[in-house]
Amino acid sequence: MLIVLLAACTQVANRSSQQHTTVAPLPSGLDVAHLADATVAARFDVNQIDWDRGTISMGIFVEDRYDAAEISQLAVGDTLAFEGCGIVVDSIRFEGDCVCINGGIEFGGADLVADDGGTYRGRMMDDHGSYSCIGNVELELADDAVLTDCGDEPTSPSVTISKEDIREYLGQDSVNKDFFCLNTTVRIADGKIVNITRRWIP
Q1: Tens digits of per-residue pLDDT, 8-34?
Q2: What's the longest Cα–Cα distance across the chain?
Q3: Which H, E and C letters describe 130-175, residue by residue?
């Protein structure tokens, strides 16, 4: 009888574990291998710029957005794909338009907030969105490419740098050498970079 009960318990446990699901962000629709015409969030630093070839190697990021119906069914034991990592749900709290998982960002969990179109978006500190990397590419700078860069303060005017002056500009000690998905967008046309915009963020 004991053997039968143990077998039954094992079957129930296996069935229960198989019911746990992973909720992943909605597909971005971007094909990293064929970025012909798009504006994307990107991450790179000066060391990833090949000045001789005129190319930049960068990570392509998309904001984490989730189907609201899937989030509403999220339960303890499920996994949430967040910023490219899997968070196993230990606790979940719904508060108005917000969802707090495992105590939220401050405690190593995740925060989500309701957005347009029946979706939730990941939310970081200062209300920044959460992003996941979907791939890495190396793209050529177009002949007429420009860099539009913010200043050090929110009220500082932006500057626009043409392709032939970007290297000298980024070589200045006072200029930030890192570009992040939270503050950088890259516009691609005909498979080449035509604009890099870095905006000020808190």
Answers
A1: 333 333 434 458 999 999 999 999 999
A2: 82
A3: CEEEEEEEEEEEEEEEEEEECCCCCCCCCEEEEHHHHHHHHCCCCC
